[in-house]
Specification:
single chain; 173 residues; mainly alpha; two-stranded antiparallel ribbon; 5 helices; 79% helix; elongated
């Protein structure tokens, strides 16, 4: 059952990464259109900077769950390699601690992001330039919330897997 949950979580994380990748392509197209419009036609795309700045955070959080699932999060590979050669159990224990701290941080972050959705919807908050081009803020906050929640799930699954390996009766992880 644990293995099936991990597979499902990884597939959802991959789908979010694809959405984030498409968002990156969209930003690239928008920036290129702005540069071409500004340089050739003297007509820049309105609110490009505002749209890009709002989108970037959403894109990062949409790609974070898959990066976490694939072990591409920030850590010292040099230290982990050294520990692996000397004590595989110590490496697993440090990795478990790292993922546990990640889960706690994501849980705290999720707790602070959740109320912002209500504020963004109820307050009719927008991103862009008033009178020129605006878009609602709530889809960006929802994307961050989804990415944060799925990354939390990934950290919990990885922590559980490492704990199972570390404390199994087989000995070495």
């Amino acid at each position: 059952m644990f293995h099936q949950i991990t597979i499902l979580a990884n597939r959802i994380a991959l789908a979010c990464a694809v959405v984030g990748g498409l968002g990156t392509v969209g930003i690239m197209l928008l920036i290129n259109a702005d540069v071409v419009g500004r340089g050739l036609l003297s007509m820049p795309v309105p609110a490009t900077a505002e749209i890009v700045s709002a989108s970037i955070v959403s894109i990062v959080f949409m790609q974070l769950p898959f990066a976490t699932a694939m072990g591409r999060n920030v850590r010292s590979d040099m230290l982990m390699t050294l520990l692996r050669s000397r004590s595989p159990r110590m490496e697993t224990a440090l990795d478990l601690f790292h993922h546990l701290v990640g889960a706690v941080i994501l849980a705290v972050l999720l707790r602070y992001i959740w109320p912002q959705i209500h504020g963004a919807i109820e307050g009719n908050e927008t991103v862009g330039l008033y009178g020129v081009f605006t878009v609602p803020r709530w889809p960006f906050v929802v994307a961050v919330l989804i990415g944060c929640a799925l990354t939390l799930v990934q950290y919990v699954l990885l922590t559980a897997s490492l704990a199972i390996n570390l404390f199994s009766t087989r000995g070495a992880p």
